[in-house]
Write a structure and sequence with these properties.
The complex is a heterotetramer.
Chain A lengths: L3 E6 L7 H15 L3 E6 L4 H13 L4 E5 L4 H10 L4 E5 L9 E4 L4 H14 L4 E6 L4 H17 L4 E6 L6 H13 L4 E4 L4 H8 L2 E6 L10 E7 L2 H12 L19 E3 L11 H15 L17
Parallel strand pairs in A: 1-2, 1-3, 3-4, 4-5, 6-7, 6-8, 8-9, 9-10
Antiparallel strand pairs in A: 10-11
Helix pairs in contact in A: 4-5, 4-9, 6-7
Chain B lengths: L1 H6 L2 H26 L7 H17 L4 H25 L4 H23 L25 H4 L4 H19 L1 H11 L1 H6 L4 H27 L11 H11 L4 H24 L11 H20 L18
Chain C lengths: L1 E4 L5 H25 L4 H13 L2 H26 L7 H16 L8 H4 L3 H34 L3 H21 L34 H18 L1 H11 L1 H6 L4 H28 L10 H11 L4 H24 L6 H21 E4 L13
Antiparallel strand pairs in C: 1-2
Helix pairs in contact in C: 1-14, 2-3, 2-13, 3-8, 3-11, 3-12, 3-13, 4-6, 4-7, 4-11, 4-12, 6-7, 6-11, 8-9, 8-13, 9-11, 13-14
Classes of the chains: A alpha/beta, B mainly alpha, C mainly alpha, D alpha/beta.
The structure holds adenosine-5'-triphosphate (ATP) (2 copies) and magnesium ion (2 copies).
One magnesium ion binds next to loops of chain D.
InterPro entries (chain B): ABC_transp_permease
Keywords (chain B): Cell membrane, Membrane, Transmembrane, Transmembrane helix
Protein name (chain B): ABC transporter permease
Chain lengths: ~300, ~325, ~375, ~525
């Protein structure tokens, strides 16, 4: 049976958390022998359209990528290659006939990790370090803050953005500054934050990926994004010749296992049982559709 | 007032020195090159190469100081390249520098990607530990005790470099080739050798500054992680009027603004007298202040007279 | 080792030098490609094909070359006058910001101030306003370092470099705040230009746009200014010897300022052209370092305005071709940047060697020794 | 020959080409112990090239250099220094921002010592300075020194290393007569101690005075060598140039016309480029040459810049034809002021531009050359070709870059540009600053003739020169400048050499028979 030719075009290196999840899911599919997988990383905005076109020309059946900053270019190419399936990370809507969208809708586990953070902080002060205030980050931060407030109304937040995706020393510095101000739990949106927490013996909450193996005594919990359901759904459609313009965003929800609260692992016994009970209850409510996490995409601000 | 609280706290100064260390290395490196008459815009790339190779060596089992030495060695190599281009071949220093930056950066990324084709999280090393043995020394202990040994090296480097430049025959030769290469040659100094040597040594310092990022400030290598720090150093040298002591001061001041900026930003709307500004304003602060500082010192800046002037023997 | 000027520089050497440089570049990079385990010969064929081997390749190369021509011209003009403008990147962004500020509309319709004009004129007026705004923005941004240099002696290399960071943060702030497109789902990007303002495509199903023509016309114009006008003579004189120029009665400060304005305007225009020709709106990553590449291109061209056109096409072709090649033979795509860097360096060396002879003097050690 | 001691220095068959130009053509020379060998020749004859080869700055295409019979490796100043050669370059090779001591010390210590021996070095410098009468402060910044002091530093540099052969390339070009005397005193002492000297100068008086033998170069070839005592100035001049040289002198019967320019109690503030000018008054008349004598660095630059429209007065007024004129060079040019700057490389020409471009740089407002902002290249070239022909500018024609001209030809280009542009409308005022510095006698004669002719055509000429012979030959009146103050301009005949020298030293109050000026000087 012929493998499906899949190409991915990333604007950042594949280590970058967000992209690493897509990369991982595709590599697994490749390992299972389902697909031929090629990718380009760190493709600049100016080159994006060309690279996508070239993959389309070369006969890729499915092209994945992130079209956030190159929305119109990506959509233009998709129009030119109606036989190719496009599955793009995008805040926009799908476009007929072949342009589908997905996004990291992991606000649900973010909410849950927020609850854990709210319960674990002793100083009632949580620090959050982000790269840029973009919707993909903002909505997770807001969900996290909501979750924390639910279990601990007294909690306050310090938020800061470092203006770079790739400056771990700087992110670490921002986290240190928060710890100096009294934060004892840190929301680690960027690499570098957990390191600061680890060095100072504070706690951290992971985002998108699970970094507990690297920081066993620091990372309490993580909101994981799993691209596998999204990829699987798209591959199935492609294989069946039924790929069309759809919103795959739902496959990033907990219901589809596109997102989850990472296992507590080393913190299994360290998180109070009553807190975990509340978290589990909320998790169930979400899965049962009884609770919906609000999606807020404005820039989060420090509270006092 | 909150501002006073911030700058009078030990953790603030710990942060300042940590932010400042790569800048100190880089600034002193640029200073050494420019004192010998060579502008080195290769710094940004050389810092990337230093960050990468220093980390890589440690990752492959070298001791931490071995990693620093490897970074320095790589810095020497790129310095040699820049030196040959600008001194032996007398090419435009701006362009050769930008070329070295492009080359060092892209080579580092290329090598990293070849070596680590499919990692999903960046591989890490165990970085330098803080010098806890210093923690009990009065006054400096609370600050220096939280820093790593490279920071101490950076701090000591300024007086060492000052001694070198102002007290030793070699330093005189370096200053002379930066002021009037023809005069130096007339006194039997091998201008090209001194210039290339200074550029190499300066580049090694830059590379160590880069290695600090991956072996001390952090424990992994990332694309783009140098993030413009090299360019800042080029500005700091002018601010410092090419004097090592002032270079140290300038780097620490810049780092202080940077550290302060983070803290002010986190203060959010709470800071008295300041409205809630977009975070970009705070990020801009160190750059804007750098330009203002340059404007203030420009009148007194004594450029090395032969800076950016290629010297071709036997030509007028 | 020393350099000795050649008596006569043969045309063959001058025109052969770039080819020698290319050969060296290919040889050096072949090692890297082989290191990655890819077939070298095929890789280079693919590179050539990807950069120049097809209509699509040419369209992509020319698209990439367009902003490079403008930033290259900007740098060439400034460097000629000895104003070391390393800030074309910032000027480009500010130009782009001004362009979307003037020509962007949430609803895609004409802005209010234009609608009062006769229908036929609206588009042209708005277009002219957008271009002029972008050029003025870039020009004013370089004016600051130029004045600081003239009045206070502040080094312009440093100020233009630092302004790049400041402008990028400013653009980030505007795209997060007042100029953010409310329809962009919160993503920091500007509102889109009025569709009528977008530059015409030069080829079907490609990205080459009329900005290319504009850039080439400007290159000819700058060349003509340099060669035939008083201002061109003044720029060259001030750049070569400001003291003598002042003595001969040239208004050195004014010439420097005008050159700065011209340079900044060209870089600002690069931003306008990218927005109007390629993206349609402004984001924070619209330029992958076009401003810095401008320095490289200007030097490859020997600061000659027409050379800038050729150098831009060359660099763009290598970038585009190498990028495609890296994908096809599965080597890391940073190989493209490596090739451009190596090409730049070997090109500089080659043109130097075409003009100078390297002499290695016999060194005898019996008589050397330390002085003193 | 075999039993006489070998020469200290022997050059054999030295040939050096720059491109197609043969700067040195198969030159062989010897220098003996305790001997002063003068090298003479026109500008560009190859003198500097020869000594630069000897010192290792340049590498000869053929030929060898021997010191005490041992060959010297080519292209290595280190080796030359080690062999005992000291060189004082035509243009100073000192780092302005460093101290005198640093400039002397550089290169004398091993680079790998961890500290300098400054104390001992300073003592040695002092000792050399006192022994040879070369007073200079080792701590001073070189940039703050006068020209004479720099010259002394250059000589100390050579002596500090124990040079046995001293090469002096035009050492007197910028010195005052007093400084020249003191330099020659030092030389005599050095020679007595066994030092050998190669001495390059365009001034035949000096050559006759100090040298034992004279070698004359012309067009890169050695045309003669011989004992100084067996020749004379006229013969040497003819050998250098290949023809007889007539030095023009002024016509004393020339009548002066109306007032052209007036300086009324003018002061100019000091800046980076020049020192101050204090309360200077001077009247310039048509058809008259007024000479300004003085040791360089006493306000000449300020005066020249003032009269060229570069520097503005801080007090007092300058009027031209009764009208005040703002300090804008274009206005001065338009008003008919021909300006000849002191530094032809740095100020007079733009080396990277062609001759024709340089020729019109002062005329960019002239409709003959520029229409609507566009240069009329044809007109500019035609004008330049004419200028080249009339002023005998040799060096390759209108399309050549100005940097390729020799000093004399560059000066002719500047003269031509300043004097000939207006066609029928001759310049009203000529401001010439050190117009013959470093020129050979042929070129000197040419420049002087041009200035005299300008005066004869009715221009007022302000001639700022350190060369007293030049002033006596050209000027109708002479004033002396000292630390920014100017004496009255008195008829040239009323000055004696002694009174001039005293006034230039700022001491000759008795010699200045003018009470007004006396007060000005005393007030300073
Ligand atoms: N570096 C150089 N490059 C090219 N040509 C040179 C160089 N140096 C000297 N020349 C040529 O060699 C000739 C001799 O120049 P040199 O400086 O030796 O003359 P000179 O006799 O010292 O003249 P002057 O009396 O003006 O000092 C010049 O005419 C010039 O053409
Ligand atoms: N870079 C150069 N390239 C080619 N030729 C040169 C160069 N520099 C100088 N020359 C040659 O050197 C000759 C003399 O130059 P130089 O400047 O020494 O003149 P000069 O007569 O010694 O005048 P001055 O002593 O006043 O400077 C010129 O004829 C010129 O051709
Ligand atoms: Mg000369
Ligand atoms: Mg000479």
């Amino acid at each position: 049976q012929a493998k499906i030719k899949v190409a991915a075009v990333y604007t950042v290196p594949v280590e970058q958390q967000w992209v690493s999840r897509i990369h991982k899911a595709l590599n697994e599919a490749k390992a299972r022998g389902e697909i031929d997988y090629v990718f380009s990383e760190s493709v600049s905005n100016a080159d994006y359209e060309r690279v996508v076109r070239q993959y389309a020309e070369q006969g890729s059946a499915l092209i994945l990528g992130e079209s956030f900053a190159v929305e119109s270019a990506a959509r233009k190419v998709a129009k030119d290659y109606p036989k190719t399936a496009f599955l793009m990370g995008s805040s926009g809507k799908p476009q007929a006939p072949n342009f589908s969208v997905f996004d990291n809708y992991i606000q649900e586990p973010s909410y849950l990790t927020g609850m854990i953070a709210g319960g674990m902080t002793k100083t009632n002060h949580i620090g959050m370090v982000g790269g840029y205030a973009i919707p993909e980050v903002n909505r997770l931060m807001h969900a996290f803050m909501e979750g924390a407030r639910e279990v601990n109304p007294k909690v306050k937040f310090t938020v800061s953005f470092i203006g770079s995706w790739f400056d771990p020393p700087k992110a670490k510095e921002a986290a240190f500054a928060m710890i100096d101000k009294g934060a004892d739990v840190l929301y680690a949106e960027r690499f570098g934050v957990s390191d600061a927490a680890k060095e100072r013996g504070k706690l951290a909450i992971g985002n998108v990926i699970n970094t507990q193996p690297q920081y066993p005594n620091t990372v309490v919990a993580s909101a994981l994004w799993n691209m596998e359901p999204t990829v699987a759904a798209a591959l199935a459609k492609v294989k069946a010749g039924q790929f069309k313009n759809e919103d795959y965003g739902q496959y990033s929800l907990m219901k589809y296992k596109g997102a989850e609260l990472a296992p507590l692992g080393t913190f299994e016994s360290k998180v109070p049982a009553d807190l975990m009970a509340k978290v589990r209850a909320k998790e169930r409510a979400i899965l049962d559709g009884k609770f919906t996490v609000k999606v807020v995409e404005t820039e989060p601000k420090s509270t006092n | 007032m909150e501002l006073l609280d911030i700058i009078s706290s030990a953790p603030f100064w710990v942060a300042v020195l940590r932010v400042g260390t790569p800048l100190i290395f880089g600034t002193l490196g640029v200073l050494l090159c420019e004192r010998a008459g060579v502008l080195n815009l290769g710094i940004e790339g050389i810092m990337v190469a230093g960050a990468f190779t220093g980390w890589l060596a440690v990752y492959h089992g070298a001791p931490l100081w071995g990693g620093v030495a490897v970074a320095a060695g790589v810095g020497l190599m790129f310095g040699l390249l820049h030196g040959v281009l600008t001194v032996s071949l007398a090419l435009s220093q701006h362009v050769a520098g930008l070329g070295v930056t492009m080359l060092a950066t892209s080579l580092s990324y290329y090598a990293y990607r070849l070596g680590f084709a499919s990692v999903s999280t960046p591989p890490t090393i165990t970085p330098f530990a803080p010098m806890v043995w210093l923690a009990d020394v009065p006054l400096i202990g609370p600050v220096l005790g939280a820093e790593t040994a490279l920071t101490l090296v950076a701090l000591l480097l300024a007086p060492v470099l000052a001694w070198l430049l102002y007290r030793t025959p070699l330093g005189l030769a370096i200053r002379m080739v930066g002021e009037n290469p023809a005069a130096a040659e007339g006194q039997g100094i091998r201008v090209a050798a001194v210039r290339i040597g200074a550029v190499m040594a300066g580049s090694a310092l830059m590379a160590v500054g880069g290695a600090f990022l991956t072996t001390s400030a952090f424990n992994a290598f990332f694309f783009n992680m140098v993030n413009g720090r090299g360019w800042i150093c080029v500005a700091l040298v002018v601010f410092a009027s090419w004097r090592p002591g002032r270079a140290l001061l300038g780097a620490v001041l810049f780092a202080a603004f940077d550290a302060l900026q983070l803290r002010l930003q986190q203060g959010g709307a709470s800071l008295p007298g300041l409205p809630a500004l977009p975070y970009q304003v705070y990020l801009m602060l160190p750059y804007v202040l750098s330009i203002l500082a340059l404007v203030l010192v420009a009148r007194r800046a004594a450029y090395p007279q032969a800076l950016m002037k290629p010297y071709r023997k036997g030509e007028r | 080792m020393r350099l000795e000027a050649r008596t006569s520089v043969s045309r063959l050497a001058l025109f052969g030098a770039p080819f020698g440089a290319i050969v060296v570049t290919l040889a050096v990079c072949a090692l890297l490609v082989a290191w990655a385990g890819a077939p070298v010969g095929r890789a280079y064929l693919l590179l050539l094909e990807g950069g120049f081997g097809s209509r699509f390749a040419w369209s992509e190369t020319l698209t990439r070359a367009t902003p490079l021509m403008l930033t290259g011209l900007a740098v060439a003009v400034a460097f000629r006058t000895r104003l070391f403008n390393i800030g074309a990147e910032g000027q480009l962004y500010l130009g782009a910001l001004a362009a979307v500020a003037v020509g962007g509309q949430v609803d895609g319709g004409m802005p209010a101030w234009v609608t009062s004009l006769p229908e036929a004129a609206q588009m042209w007026v708005l277009f002219a306003a957008m271009v002029v705004a972008g050029m003025i923005a870039g020009a004013l941004l370089l004016l600051v370092p130029a004045l600081l240099k003239l009045r206070l002696g502040v080094d312009e290399v440093v100020t233009t470099l630092l302004l790049n960071f400041i402008v990028l943060l400013l653009v980030s702030m505007m795209l997060d705040g007042p100029m953010k497109d409310p329809l962009a789902m919160g993503w920091p990007q500007s509102v889109a230009l009025v569709p009528e303002l977008e530059l015409a495509r030069l080829m079907e199903r490609s990205r080459v746009h009329s900005g290319l023509i504009g850039a080439m016309v400007l290159a000819v114009l700058v060349w003509a200014i340099n060669r035939f006008t008083v201002f061109g003579l003044q720029m060259r004189a001030v750049g070569a010897n400001a003291r003598a120029a002042a003595f001969a009665g040239m208004p050195v400060a004014r010439v420097t300022v005008l050159a700065a304005l011209l340079s900044g305007a060209l870089a600002g225009l690069a931003g306008v052209v990218e927005v109007a020709g390629r993206t349609g709106y402004l984001t924070l990553d619209i330029s992958p370092g076009y401003g810095y590449a401008g320095v490289v291109i200007a030097m490859l061209a020997g600061l000659h305005p027409l050379g800038v056109v050729a150098a831009s096409i060359f660099v763009a072709g290598v970038l585009v071709g190498a990028d495609g090649m890296s994908r096809a033979v599965n080597v890391p795509n940073t190989i493209a940047d490596v090739i451009v860097a190596v090409a730049l360096i070997s090109m500089l060396v080659a043109t130097m060697l075409a003009r100078y002879r390297v002499r290695f003097d016999r060194i005898r050690f019996d008589r050397g020794g330390r002085a003193g | 020959m075999s039993n006489s001691p070998p020469p200290v220095l022997r050059l054999t068959g030295i040939t050096k080409r720059f491109g197609s130009l043969v700067a040195n053509d198969d030159i062989s020379l010897e220098l003996h112990r305790g001997e002063v060998l003068a090298l003479l020749g026109e500008n560009g004859a190859g003198k500097s090239t020869l000594v630069n080869i000897l010192f290792g700055h340049y590498v000869a295409d053929a030929g060898t250099v021997e010191i005490d019979g041992a060959p010297l490796p080519p292209g290595q100043p280190r080796a030359a220094l080690a062999a005992g050669i000291g060189m004082v370059h035509q243009h100073f090779t000192l780092a302005d921002n460093l101290s005198v001591l640093d400039n002397i010390l550089i290169g004398t210590e091993s680079l790998w010592r961890w500290r300098q021996q400054r104390g001992a070095a300073r003592a040695r410098v002092q000792e050399i300075a006192t022994r040879f009468g070369l007073a200079v402060d080792p701590q001073a910044r070189v940039g703050a020194l006068s020209v004479g002091e720099r010259q002394r530093v250059e000589i100390i540099k050579a002596l500090y290393r124990g040079a046995r052969v001293l090469i002096l390339d035009e050492p007197t070009a910028v010195l005052t007569p007093q400084e020249v005397d003191s330099l020659f005193g030092t030389l005599a002492q050095l020679i007595a101690e066994g030092l050998s000297v190669v001495f390059i100068s365009h001034k035949l008086d000096e050559v006759m005075r100090v040298s034992h033998r004279v070698a004359v170069l012309r067009g890169g070839k050695l045309v003669s060598t011989g004992a100084t005592s067996e020749t004379n100035k006229a013969e040497l001049a003819e050998r250098m140039v290949g023809r007889r040289v007539e030095m023009p002198v002024r016509d004393e019967s020339r009548a002066r016309g109306e007032v052209v320019a007036m300086l009324d109690h003018v002061s100019v503030a000091a800046n980076d480029d020049h020192g101050p000018l204090a309360d200077v008054s001077l009247t310039l008349y048509a058809g008259e040459i007024v000479g300004i004598a003085g040791v360089s660095g006493n306000g000449q630059v300020a005066l020249a810049e003032l009269m060229s429209g570069i520097a503005a007065p801080s007090r007092g007024s300058v009027t031209l034809g009764g009208q005040p004129l703002a300090a804008v060079p274009q206005k001065w040019i338009a008003a008919g002021v021909a300006r000849i700057p002191e530094d032809r490389h740095a100020q007079g020409t733009v080396g990277d531009l062609t001759l024709w471009e340089n020729a019109i740089t002062e005329q960019l407002g002239n409709r003959v050359f520029v229409r609507g902002g566009v240069i009329r290249r044809g007109a500019a070239r035609a004008f330049t070709r004419d200028l080249i022909q009339r002023f005998d500018v040799r060096g390759g024609g209108a399309e050549v870059a100005a940097r390729n001209l020799s000093g004399g030809n560059m000066q002719k280009l500047i003269l031509g540009r300043a004097l000939s542009v207006r066609g029928e409308q001759a310049p009203r005022l000529v401001v010439a600053s050190q117009p013959t510095w470093g020129l050979d006698i042929g070129a000197v004669a040419y420049v002087r003739r041009q200035l005299l002719e300008a005066a004869a055509r009715g221009a007022a000429v302000l001639l700022i020169s350190e060369d007293l012979d030049e002033l006596r030959a050209l000027a109708d009146r002479v004033a002396v400048i000292h630390s920014g103050h100017l004496t009255d301009a008195r008829p040239t005949e009323s000055w004696t050499l002694a009174s001039l020298g005293l006034a230039m030293a700022g001491e000759g109050h008795d010699a200045i028979h003018d009470n007004d000026r006396m007060e000005a000087i005393d007030a300073a």
